[in-house]
Design goal:
single chain, alpha/beta, 9 helices, 42% helix, 16% strand, globular, DeoC/FbaB/LacD_aldolase, lyase, cytoplasm
Length: 227
């Protein structure tokens, strides 16, 4: 096994995620404690929970979402939300594009939307662009990834996990990875519930994973390895 396919290596690719509308402050603190125990890269939480106390997990990164989950927000609203999140301590921002604009082929509008959020955030803040890949054709996925790169994004991300069309697929991750060619990261998120799912996404080209059931995924990987 490679280091990315053992539990500790895979954990360093994980955004340990809690975006349920009913989540509480206590739930977020439990998330931080789990993050420390599991050794993940970051937590991903709703912006209303920022700032968050991560003293229980030194070195833990904090990601949040923007324009979530529909993406149907004015670009200046998304930009303001992202800027506020950074002031409140976010290291990374996962923004949702206007998926309808992509489906209509209005890629200039998609690019401008992403660029507005990029301009509102410092360069050292990681910007991930959620494209909702399950709702797009292959050609649309490619065009949106290209727009994200032109706009200065750091990652393209498959899914919010809330869209009825579904979450990450191996096909979409591989296509996204091929399109960005290592110049951007690729985050697979949505519906990744087992160790096999996670490993398959990494093998397809994912460089980050969004998981809500992180403990179960890592335990499954340890079991598969015979630990």
């Amino acid at each position: 096994m490679t280091t990315t396919h053992d539990a500790a290596g895979l954990a360093r690719l994980v955004d340990h995620t809690l975006l349920k509308p009913e989540a509480t402050v206590a739930d977020v603190q439990t998330l931080v404690e789990e993050a420390a125990r599991l050794g993940v890269y970051s937590i991903c939480i709703s912006p209303s929970f920022l700032p968050v106390d991560t003293s229980a997990a030194p070195g833990l990164h904090v990601a949040t979402v923007c324009g979530f989950p529909s993406g149907k927000h004015h670009s200046d609203v998304k930009a303001a939300e992202a800027a506020r999140s950074v002031r409140d301590g976010a290291d990374e921002v996962d923004m949702v594009i206007d998926v309808g604009a992509a489906r209509e082929g209005r890629y200039d509008a998609v690019e401008a939307d992403i660029a507005a959020v990029r301009a509102a955030t410092p360069g050292d803040v990681v910007l991930k662009v959620i494209i909702e890949s399950a709702a797009l054709t292959d050609d649309q996925i490619v065009a949106v990834c290209q727009a994200a790169e032109r706009a200065g994004a750091d990652f393209v991300k498959t899914s919010t996990g809330f869209h009825p069309a579904g979450g990450a697929t191996v096909h979409a991750v591989a296509l996204m990875a091929q399109t960005v060619g290592g110049r951007l990261g690729v985050k697979a998120s949505g519906g990744i519930r087992t160790a096999a799912d996670a490993v398959t996404m990494v093998d397809a080209g994912a460089t980050r994973l969004g998981l809500s059931g992180t403990a179960a995924v890592l335990a499954g990987l340890e079991a598969d390895a015979g630990y």
